[in-house]
Amino acid sequence: MFRAASKLSTAARPIFSATFSLSKPVCNSTFLSQLSNTKSQKIRFFSSSDVFKASPVAVEMINYALSLARSQKSDESYAQGLLVLEQCQSTQQDDNSKGLVLLGMSTLFSERGNYEEAIEQLKKVKDLAVSSLAIKVAASEALVGLHLELGQDDSSSVLADICLQLLESVKMETGSGYGDGVLDARAKALKGLVELVRGDLESSDLYFQGLEGIKGNVALSYGGFLHAKQNFPMAKELYEKVIQGATETKDLSDPHNFAAGNMALEEVLLAATCSLGQLEAHLGNFSEAEEMLTQALTKTEEHFGSRHPKVGVVLTCIALMYRHKAATERSSSLLIQEGLYRRALEMLKVHRRDIVALARGGYAELLCVQQNRKAEGEKMKKWAETAWKNRRLSVADALNISEPTSKVPVVDLRISRVL
């Protein structure tokens, strides 16, 4: 029972010291209009077996740069990784390879919390004569994901629409579309995720219908939708499929795995593990839930470092699991929950506002049952209710899920949002 709680001491270790730059980027209209103008450049289309044409040297350098940056998880190691990518960018002759490098740079910036720079790298893809549609879709997917993480839902919706329009224009131009439908599925799932975050389950359902051969981000987003709808068996099947697929391969030639920023394969694996842990808790399988969430915590610490805000997101999920377990079994874990919430709130940043509100709401209820801390709890509870922006459920709904008819909160670790 206490395996996950014991990770608190690990979460406190200062593996790296970093200042996370979370200044708000602006999704400017010029960029949006240029991205949507697909007729300005002639696009060549490849089959799924030739989803992008990039220099093998560029791919090797990107992999090396990512490994170098993550080796120490320090300002210096990330700077070294970015330097390798900048050198790679300057030596490439074809725009597909340059576009691939930009996706890698965006991934490193986003991992360090510098979302403004991550978004700028993705915007640069539009200025290249990129012939690979997969690169364009990956850039759009990452842009939407980063804007969702920043709470800029309207910008995310516009960008998702543009991605859909891009693929529709391909169908009109070629008369037959492209490849095996993987990119079309990714674009639809991207829009479905946006609608899910905005609380419109009916609209989200329309975009998830008819997806075939779903893997990776598509399966994870669809799983989140089914999870929110409480179709637990199908959601669990999809989460497990994502984990298995991400564990078995990291082949960039697979269009399911081709992504950047917070939509990259590593983040998809972490998010699927965290989502499966939440689902097991919602099913009342607390031993399995603890195991999966502890795995998610360990892997998130390994990937980002123990002080990264996304570690705080996972800690919040673990605290909620203990809360649900205590309510179901009529037991108490107040000290464990309080420790988890406090550590989570130390790591979370302002742009993860609904996760902060969820953590503070859970913490507030712990304080309210203690007579000498009730006033403090009421104040924190009021703040959480004011900060909460989720349209599908209230803070109270998200915290009180013991009843069979209750709505369940689903935390998507990729975007640090409650679905």
UniProtKB/TrEMBL annotation:
Classification via InterPro entries: TPR-like_helical_dom_sf
Pfam family, one: TPR_10
GO cellular component: mitochondrion
Coiled-coil ranges from the UniProt annotation: none
Gene3D superfamilies named in the record: Tetratricopeptide repeat domain
PANTHER family referenced in this protein's UniProt entry, alphabetically: OS05G0457700 PROTEIN
Protein name as annotated: MalT-like TPR region domain-containing protein
Lineage: Eukaryota, Viridiplantae, Streptophyta, Embryophyta, Tracheophyta
